[in-house]
Each structure stands twice: as structure tokens, then as C-alpha cells.
Design brief:
single chain; 14 helices; about 20% strand; five-stranded mixed beta sheet; about 500 residues; amp nucleosidase, domain 1; globular
Length: about 500
Amino acid sequence: MSRDPAAVPSSPLACATAEEAVDRLEALYEAAVAAERAALDRFVDQRIPPTPEERAAFRYPGLWLRWAPEGPPPQVRRSWAKLQVSGDYATTITNPAAFRPYLLEQLRPLIAEYGATLEVGPSSQEIPYPYVLEGGDELARGGVSAAELARHFPVPMLSAVGDEVADGLWRFRDGAPRPMALFDAARVDYSLRRLQHYTGTDWRHVQPWILLTNYQRYIGQFVDWALAELRRADGDYTALVLPGGAVITRGHAPEAAARLVAEAPWQRFQMPAYHLLRGEGRNGLTIVNIGVGPSNAKTISDHLAVTRPHCWLMIGHCGGLRQSQEIGDYVLAHGYLRRDRILDDLLPPEIPVPALAEVQVALQQAAAQVTGEAGEALKRRLRTGTVVSYDDRNWELRWSQERLRINLSRAIGVDMESGTLAAQGYRLRVPYGTLLCVSDKPLHGEIKLPGAATAFYQRAVSEHLAIGIATFGILRQQLTALHSRKLRAFDEPPFR
């Protein structure tokens, strides 16, 4: 049920409540994973393949919803957990225990407000065997080859993973259920494993508030701030997860915590991530050093999107394009000139990527809080305008070609990632925002010289990071408004 959610349920059970539905999803998933792991162990040790009957158990649980309204639909202002067309909906679910809060958040209103009915049962979508392995090397002991495993166990298939629903390419057929979510189980599992590969951390630690940066210096500042938060007796945060899997908790002595940070093998990972957990491990902050360029920006956001975060913010450096800007000023993007080209086939450049009012206002409020400036004083340091994002770091060498386009766009800043991340947020329905810091002025002779750059970093990075963190503090109180209807399509699935 990857690109087509029309798989026929096998012995589905009606569920009266969201809790009952998620409980059954968890039980079915755990049983399927246990059965597949047991069969894998037996095959590695004894070369006994699973029988067809055994392999039939290696399936994701399916979730089916039916809505047959007898009157007008309820008037609901939120943009998610909504039904627009009567009929049947379906999806497959992976790791339902980890996604339990999200699933309950989506299902409860559909039952209570719309009177929808739910069924849960095994789907027809097989779980690829790599997705039931935790360490990844469990099968090494038997010398079994990937080709042998592929003959007897489900394998990841590119034909079974896609973004057709998110990209509006899925087509309804009579008798087939509509998709209930943007991503089905196979697509989610694909990205969860990619997250571990790129970030060096377990995907379960990814938090719903995500900072994306292109400079490791922001990571250092974030770690220092996180450790200070963990030392606060009245702090909200409980643990910091480092690349490589080490965890620093509130009970760690400062020396031990510093040693774990120093020993974290972040250099081994392409886009290292750090997760600051809050409360029960949810509603905290994640920061990812995505590196430089639109390719990295698309790669990581493709995968982060399946965790259904509340918001991601780009906080990094840009070149200032206006004479009036100074090094250390801020650029609050309200529009994007997308010269990154990486999404042109999926989201053509002529499609506007709107600024989200809730995020824009929160960023400006946070800047006022952190800097202590307001009114004209704040406006002198924080300028709102268009950011142009290139796929070519040496775009200046094509200045005679690019000048007219930049001039027409009224762009005030230039970088390589912000347009991609905003377009991905729009495309994948994740609220987004961009606050950049001017680190050089390439058109005005103020280039990033080593000495000046060091002084700039020391002064600007800490304040910039604090603004991003404060923005999330404001947005936590505005979740219903944050998940804007601007991001929803005509035939949107009910799940956020």
C-alpha cells in the first residue's frame, strides 16, 4: 500500500476509539517484526527459509477509515485532522508505538467530530527485512549474502517508495480508498533509516522543533546552551543526545558531560544532529548541521519530514546584497528567489512559496526579546526581504548574467540552502522560516577575511542561535495556527 493505499485488509477489526486503534496497530506491528526477526535468525543459523504462510506475517499493519456523513461536515478551523470527501481512507503504519502521540492527535478529532469509523488489520504491504533490524549487523554472523536474503525475505523496493501523495500525483480510482497520510509505512521506514545514516543518531530522538544550520559553530553554541539548561534546577530539558548515541542527562557532572561532547564522533556523519529532549522526550529541540548546498538541504528535509515536525528554521549565514546592511545584521526571509534548481521538476519555480505569518511574527518577536531592541533600532539590524538561493557557490563569477534577476527580485540576501528548505516545507507540509545573519557583502567589497570572520562568529552566532530557540518558545503556544492552511492542497489527506 505504498503508492496505492488500496490494499485489502486481512481480518480487520473495528475500533471504537483512537486508543483502541493505536493499541491494535502496536500489537500487529510488534508481532510482524518479531516473526520476521525470528525467521531471519533461523535462516542465518540453519538456512531454513520462511514458508509462504510464515512470510505472510511479515506485513505492516493497515489503518482504514470510513466517513459516511449524514449532514453537513463540522466547521473546523484547524488545517489537519479534517475530512473533505466522504468515503474510505487507508494507510499503513510503521513503529506505531513511537508515533503514538501523533496518531492519537490525528485520529481523536476524526472520530469525535466527524463520526468516522476505524478498522485495523494486517495490510498487503510487506516490511523489508532491513527495517526490522536495530543494529544493522545482526546477520553478519552467518556469512549470508544479501542476494540470498532477497530470495526469501522482503527487500526495499524503489517502486514501493514515493511521494506521489505529497506531490499531488496520486489519482483516485473507483473502489479504492483515498490516502489517509502523506507518507505510508514503507516511505517512512526508508527515511527513518536514512536519518540514522546521515545524522548519526537514532531517529526516535528527532524532536518536533528543528534548527537547520550550515555552520558547525552553531552546533558548538547549541551544545554549550543545552548543557547550561541541563544544569538548571528548574529547567524543562532532561537530556542531550549526541552523534554516535551518547546521552548526557541532568545528573551528569560537568566534567563527564564535557568529555562525552569531546568524544562524540560527529565528524563521521555527513549531517550530524544533536537532540535536546524535553519532558518525556518530546517537544524538545533538534539541531542539524546540514552542510553547504541545496542537495544536502533537500536530502535531510526529505527524511525529517516523515517525523511530522511542528517547524523547521534555517539559521545560517548569508551574503548581504544591500549597501545599507552591515556585517552581523539579520535577514528575515519573506520570499525566495529559487535559483537552486533542485526542486524545479517537483515544485516549479513559478509556484510561490509563501511566508508563514505565524513564523514571521514569532521570529521578529524573538529577535526583539533577545536583542533588547525594538522599533527603528530593531529595523536597522533586522531587515525583511527576499533571499536568493543558488546551487553555485561561485555565482559572483556570473554577475553580469545574474544582476538583472537579483535586481528585479529586490533580494537582500544570498545563500545556498534557504530557498530549498522553504520549498521543501511548503511541498511536504512542514511549517518553515528563515533568519540569516549577514557575514559578508560580496557586491560591496566586504568579503569574509579570516580575522574579521573570527570576530564576527564570536559576536553573532550566540545571539542568532538564541533568537531561533526563543522563536520555538513562542510557537509552542500557537500549534493550531502554526500548521497553516496555506500548506494544504485541495485533496489533502486527513493526517497532518
